[in-house]
């Protein structure tokens, strides 16, 4: 029973069958969170484009029944001023299996650090999957943006994002520092009286389940390489262990063998002969600009993945068209890489491309590939016709600058 969520009477649930595959009815109920800030602009446009693509692809045989669920500022209006992430939102995301969300503001002074992070942790959405590809015609700060074609696997449940930290000069921080100094023999806290403390948990189990999925993705999608991006030279038992455990999964579970004496590895030919390699995070950030064609699937921890997502998005035109998915072994929540961009909220101005492409990933995940393909073609055609929102128009001579909703309407016109 739901208190404020209205289940559409004309739809059916997506289910997970006994073999672990999705069973998607022709009229699935898909929960959506509108999102804060520019959520009010982009989410309705995304729904309109998706509905039009599904209608066109399946001639009315298939249709999504959208069901609104709440998080962020809208949840506080519906459920009460302290309720940023209602339990029934989590329940609906689990029960209806596939959802999509707009961006959510991090509440100032609330009990929750980030509602996005809380959603990922509470539903154990341990993979953040963010493909980065170039759409021809998009303005980019690099000379050959088409060379960037990567898929980021960002570990989504561990690392410094676990939110284990204590404020400087608090009783808790003092206690932890005392323990570190007296019981653990730590001598390297430079200013113990005034240090805040954060803890970075990275586990073998978390790494293994995550990198297993990333390698399988690389095999299933015929990718050339998988690069582990880490800062293991400095953080040996977290980032370094991530690298070590990941190579071990490649060897023990996928039969990878050392390449030229290692540490790089290669999967057997029947698994695509994919190269498994690693690079230190700072070097990676310069190499993606200098030689992006050398990187394909990228597997990395949470904080590195956050930085890398925005950096790579910029290379192909910015976070206006950067899609993503948060995945567990059962539940999926699709969302854009960008945030709530508050200064543009309600102005019908921003690029709805990120959430539309996130919905495209959702349709593909559901097996509705014809509608997904149509969305990709419509995005390509709209940009080719130089019909773009402000973010692209400011770097694109001769472009026709349109509003967020007009961009969606242009995409609908070019659905084919
Ligand atoms: N998953 C989520 O829900 C996320 C939520 N957040 C939250 O969002 C809030 C704001 O974060 P902030 O750091 O400003 O980052 P944002 O991603 O919200 O915005 C930063 C800048 O990116 C550009 N931008 C973002 N979205 C679009 C779009 N759709 N179209 C065109 N340009 C876009 C704008 O650049 P310009 O000004 O140059 O036009 C904008 O000012 C914070 O509360 C943060 O915690 C942040 C990231 C992810
Ligand atoms: O939750 C937030 O405020 C930030 C999330 C974020 O930056 C991301 O998912 O990339
Ligand atoms: Mg981010």
UniProtKB/TrEMBL annotation:
Pfam family for this entry, one: Iso_dh
Catalytic activity field: D-threo-isocitrate + NADP(+) = 2-oxoglutarate + CO2 + NADPH
Site entry: Critical for catalysis: 161, 231
Residues given in the record as Mg(2+) binding sites: 306
Domain Isopropylmalate dehydrogenase-like, residue spans: 29-411
Enzyme class name: oxidoreductase
Record-listed N6-succinyllysine modification sites: 101, 243
Cofactor annotation comment: Binds 1 Mg(2+) or Mn(2+) ion per subunit.
Gene Ontology BP annotations: glyoxylate cycle; tricarboxylic acid cycle
Residues holding NADP(+): 105, 338-344, 351, 390, 394
SMART domains the UniProt entry points to: Iso_dh
NCBIfam families the UniProt entry points to: PRK07006.1, prok_nadp_idh
Assembly notes: Homodimer.
Entry similarity comment: Belongs to the isocitrate and isopropylmalate dehydrogenases family.
Protein's UniProt name: Isocitrate dehydrogenase [NADP]
The species this protein was found in: Nitrosomonas oligotropha
Lineage, uppermost ranks: Bacteria, Pseudomonadati, Pseudomonadota, Betaproteobacteria, Nitrosomonadales
């Amino acid at each position: 029973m739901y208190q404020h969520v209205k289940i559409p009477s004309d739809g059916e649930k997506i289910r997970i069958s006994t073999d672990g595959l999705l069973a998607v009815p022709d009229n699935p109920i898909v929960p959506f969170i509108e999102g804060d800030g520019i959520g009010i602009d982009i989410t309705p446009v995304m729904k309109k484009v998706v509905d039009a693509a599904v209608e066109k692809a399946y001639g009315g045989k298939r249709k999504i029944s959208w069901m609104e669920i709440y998080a962020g500022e809208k949840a506080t209006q519906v459920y009460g001023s302290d309720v940023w992430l209602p339990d029934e939102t989590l329940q609906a995301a689990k029960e209806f299996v596939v959802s999509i969300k707009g961006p959510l503001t991090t509440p100032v002074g609330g009990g929750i650090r980030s509602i996005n992070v809380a959603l990922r942790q509470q539903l154990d959405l341990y993979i953040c999957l963010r493909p980065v590809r170039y759409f021809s015609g998009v303005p980019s700060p690099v000379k050959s943006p088409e060379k960037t074609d990567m898929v980021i696997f960002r570990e989504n449940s561990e690392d410094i994002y676990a939110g284990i930290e204590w404020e400087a000069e608090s009783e808790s921080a003092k206690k932890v520092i005392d323990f570190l100094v007296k019981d653990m023999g730590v001598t390297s806290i430079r200013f113990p009286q005034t240090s805040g403390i954060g803890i970075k948990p990275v586990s073998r189990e978390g790494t293994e389940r995550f990198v297993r999925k990333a390698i399988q993705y690389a095999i299933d999608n015929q990718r050339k390489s998988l690069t582990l991006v880490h800062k293991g030279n400095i953080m040996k038992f977290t980032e370094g262990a991530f690298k070590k455990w990941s190579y071990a999964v490649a060897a023990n579970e996928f039969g990878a063998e050392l390449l030229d004496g290692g540490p790089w590895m290669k999967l057997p030919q029947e698994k695509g002969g994919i190269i498994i390699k690693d690079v230190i995070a700072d070097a990676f950030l310069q190499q993606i600009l200098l030689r992006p064609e050398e990187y394909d699937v990228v597997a990395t921890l949470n904080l590195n993945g956050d930085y890398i997502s925005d950096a790579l998005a910029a290379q192909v035109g910015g976070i206006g068209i950067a899609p993503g998915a948060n995945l567990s072994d059962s539940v999926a929540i699709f969302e854009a890489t960008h945030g709530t961009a508050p200064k543009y909220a309600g102005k019908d101005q921003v690029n709805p491309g990120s959430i539309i492409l996130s919905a495209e990933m959702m349709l593909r995940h559901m097996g509705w590939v014809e509608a997904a393909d149509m969305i990709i073609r419509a995005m390509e055609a709209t940009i080719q016709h130089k019909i773009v929102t402000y973010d692209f128009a400011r770097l694109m001579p001769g472009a026709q600058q349109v509003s967020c909703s007009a961009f969606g309407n242009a995409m609908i016109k070019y659905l084919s």
